[in-house]
Give the backbone structure.
Amino acid sequence: MADSPNTNTPDTNDNTLDIDSAAVTARQVVAVRYGDPVDVLKIVEVELPAPDQGQVVVAVEAIGVNPIDAKIVRGVMGTDESALPRPIGNELSGTVRAVGPGTNDFAVGDPVIGYPVPGAYADHVVVGTDRLHRRPESLDVQRAAGLLLAGVTAADAVATAQIAGGDVVVVHGGAGAVGVVAVQLAVKAGATVIATAAQTNHAYLRGLGAIPVTYGDGLIERIREGAPGAVTAAVDTVGTDEAIDVSLELVVDRSRIVSIAAFGRAAEGIVVIAGPSAASNRHRAEAIEPLIASAADGSLVTEVAATYPMDRAGHALADLSGRHPRGKFVLLP
Ligand SMILES: NC(=O)c1ccc[n+]([C@@H]2O[C@H](COP(=O)([O-])OP(=O)(O)OC[C@H]3O[C@@H](n4cnc5c(N)ncnc54)[C@H](OP(=O)(O)O)[C@@H]3O)[C@@H](O)[C@H]2O)c1
C-alpha cells in the first residue's frame, strides 16, 4: 500500500500525457506448458494496456525468485491448460514510469517494491498502486525485490505461533529465505531460537542470535542439548516429516507448531499456513512496512545469493529447486 500521497504528482491532465508517452511493449516470462522450467519458460513480447485509474507502469529492475514459482511451472500446484501461456512471479522492484489518470499516490520516478504482482517476471508491468510500496533509497533494488514474499510469510508464521519473550522456539530451515526472517523476528520478540540448517550456515545463524543445529538423524537429541528449557513452539519452513515429527514430540501445544510447507500433515492438529485466511491476511498486511523499514535500516538482515538475466529464469528455478547457496535468487530484466 502507498503510505502517503505524493504532493509532487501532476494533475489529472498531465497524467494523461504521461500515459500516452508510456506505451510500451513488455518482455515477459511465461510457461508455455508445465514441466522442467529450463524447457518450458519462454520470453514473449506483450503490448501493455495503458494504466487505468489507480494503476501505474513500473519499469522493473529486479525480480524475486521463489520456490512457489518453480512449483507452479512444474505443475505441482495444478496443470490448468487454460492458464497457458502462464505468466510467472510475484514480486519485483523498480521505478514508476507512468501513472494512470487520477492516480496521485505515486509519481513518475518513484522507486517502488511491487508485491503481490502476478506475472512479475517482466521488464515492465501495469500494476495497481495498492500493490506498490515505497522503496527507501537505502534499500538496494535487488534485496528489495526478494524481501516481501518470504518476509510476510515469516511474519505470518511467527505471529500465528504467537512467539513472545520467554519462548524456546525451533525454526526448521532457519537459513532459508523464510527461515532467516522468522529467526530474526523470533529473536526480536525475545524468544530463544534454535534453528536447523546445514553446517555451512551455522556461523551465520549464530550471528543472527540463534542456536544452530544440523538437521537429519539425531535432530531431537541435538535440539534437547541446545535448548535451555522445554521447547514451547516450532516454525517449520521445510515440510519434511522429520521437522513435523520432532516438533510434535517437543511441543506440547500443537496449535503452536506452525508449518508453511507440510501440507500433508494438517490433520494432526498443527497449523499449516496454506491459503489466505483472514488472520494470515492481517499478519501479512501489517508486516509489509516494518519489513521494508527494517531491511532499509539494516536491522533485518537478508541476502541476495545470485542474480540471473531474465532469459535464464528457467535455470534460476532449476537451481533454486536443488541445494543452493543461502539468500535470494533475483532475476534482472
Ligand atoms: N505457505 C506459504 O505461504 C509459503 C510462502 C513462502 C514459501 N513457502 C514454502 O516454504 C518453503 C521454503 O521457502 P524458502 O523461500 O525459504 O526456500 P529456500 O530459501 O530455498 O530455503 C529452504 C531451506 O531449507 C533448508 N533445508 C533443505 N533441506 C532440509 C531438510 N531436510 N531439513 C531442514 N532444512 C532443510 C535449506 O537450508 P540449508 O541450506 O541450511 O540446508 C534451505 O535453505 C518452500 O517449500 C516454499 O514453497 C510457503
Observations:
- The chain has eleven helices and 16 strands.
- The pocket of NAP is lined by residues 66-68, 150, 153, 172-173, 175-179, 196-198, 201, 215, 237-240, 260-261, 273-274, 320 (CB under 6 Å).
- The mean pLDDT is 93.
